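wait is this the right file?? whatever heres the structure
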């Protein structure tokens, strides 16, 4: 849409607002700022795509009313300064290539096709990208080892992993792996769901260890071959510089755009391949499926730079898992429903007896009863003395001996039951 006027873009802006559920107002200063930013981004996207010389295309997404600085402040969150955290136990010079020297790597790998990648998630405006890169890597290796793809809880990491990581103010994947090792596992997304803000650590959920790892490995900085070897066997968490305008608006193709070297965003490599002569990594992001190519981006690899495109080779790591998960407690059988109480016995309009008893008249006057009593036996036989009752299977009252007999010739029976005063309605 070359030379788009403000009136043309007003329509584009309204459509964009409706598509992404934005409350857009162009009549106040904030609304004017948002509209001006949208126009700038729209024209930048249009110019890039019209040039036709790039291996990737840009497009409008949920971030198209944000400046690069606003975007940087709200939707990143990796903290490389935490690499010197005392909680870390794994050196970055571990031999990742051990056992791979004579392996012929496949030309392409896509762990999505093997069922080892959950659907793209959305970190929102919480700087928790590091938590999503961590859970994604563990979800992958857990599926590869156990055959089960379980979506894991980023919120547990945001709330509970506080020895070194900073919740929505940023963190580091290796710190998170160490936390999970020490905790003995991580809860599920379903049980401890994400809400894009920090809360107090839920100790009950913290002790729900559904998926565990044995440890983790840190790939030496700049070793792209080691990174390739690792991705060939499982998804790998990496750090990138993710604040450029092109990356903010990436839509499809192999991304080769300009990036700085300041790593500030945690993502997950889930495969690699080649397209039109360009080698690429398949990267899962945490900005929902509305960003990029359904939540993913193909990022150029084999650039010839030690750090790789957007410094993707700089800070990579992955979890180690060889066995099953912690045993889960057997679900408790549901408690049996208590039996429904028997209905109360209504003796007359004004008197009733508790359930499980029988109404017996204590003071009859002709066909009427002046005072009722409650015999503590259900379906009982009321005795002629108007003071006692007998069970229905011992129907013969013998007050003199204080017994209830089965028949008049019986000499053994059960004890008479005395009636008590009734409940007044």
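ok assuming it is, sequence goes like this
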């Amino acid at each position: 849409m070359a030379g788009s006027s403000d009136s043309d873009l007003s329509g584009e802006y309204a459509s964009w607002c409706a598509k992404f559920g934005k409350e857009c107002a162009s009549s106040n200063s904030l609304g004017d700022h948002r509209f001006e930013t949208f126009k700038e981004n729209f024209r930048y996207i249009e110019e890039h795509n019209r040039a036709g010389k790039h291996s990737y295309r840009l497009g409008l997404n949920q971030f198209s009313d944000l400046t690069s600085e606003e975007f940087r402040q709200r939707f990143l969150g990796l903290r490389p300064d935490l690499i010197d955290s005392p909680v870390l136990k794994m050196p970055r010079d571990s031999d990742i290539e051990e056992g791979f020297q004579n392996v012929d790597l496949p030309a392409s790998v896509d762990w999505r096709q093997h069922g080892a990648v959950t659907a793209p998630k959305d970190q929102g405006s919480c700087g928790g990208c590091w938590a999503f890169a961590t859970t994604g890597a563990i979800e992958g290796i857990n599926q590869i080892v156990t055959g089960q793809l379980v979506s894991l809880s980023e919120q547990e990491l945001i709330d509970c992993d506080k020895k070194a990581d900073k919740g929505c103010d940023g963190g580091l994947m290796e710190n998170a792996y160490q936390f999970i090792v020490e905790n003995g596992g991580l809860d599920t997304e379903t049980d401890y769901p994400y809400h894009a803000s920090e809360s107090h650590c839920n100790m009950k959920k913290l002790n729900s260890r559904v998926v565990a790892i044995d440890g983790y490995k840190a790939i030496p900085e700049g070793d792209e071959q080691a990174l390739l070897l690792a991705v060939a066997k499982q998804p790998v968490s990496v750090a990138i510089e993710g604040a450029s305008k092109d990356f903010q608006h990436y839509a499809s193709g192999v991304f080769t755009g300009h990036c700085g070297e300041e790593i500030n965003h945690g993502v997950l490599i889930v495969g690699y391949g080649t397209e039109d002569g360009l080698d690429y990594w398949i990267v899962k992001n945490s900005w929902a499926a509305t960003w990029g190519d359904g939540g993913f981006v193909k990022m150029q690899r084999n650039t010839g730079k030690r750090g790789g495109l957007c410094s993707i080779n700089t800070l990579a790591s992955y979890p180690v898992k060889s066995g099953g998960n912690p045993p889960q407690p057997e679900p408790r059988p549901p408690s049996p429903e208590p039996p429904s109480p028997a209905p109360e016995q209504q003796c007359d309009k004004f008197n009733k007896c508790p359930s499980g008893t029988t109404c017996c008249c204590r003071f009859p006057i002709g066909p009427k009863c002046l005072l009722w009593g409650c015999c503590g036996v259900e379906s009982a036989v009321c005795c002629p003395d108007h003071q006692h009752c007998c069970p229905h299977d011992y129907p013969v009252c013998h007050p003199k001996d204080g017994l209830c007999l089965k028949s008049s010739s019986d000499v053994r029976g059960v004890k008479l039951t005395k009636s008590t005063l009734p409940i007044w309605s």
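Residues 29-51 form the longest helix (23 residues). so i think its the right one actually
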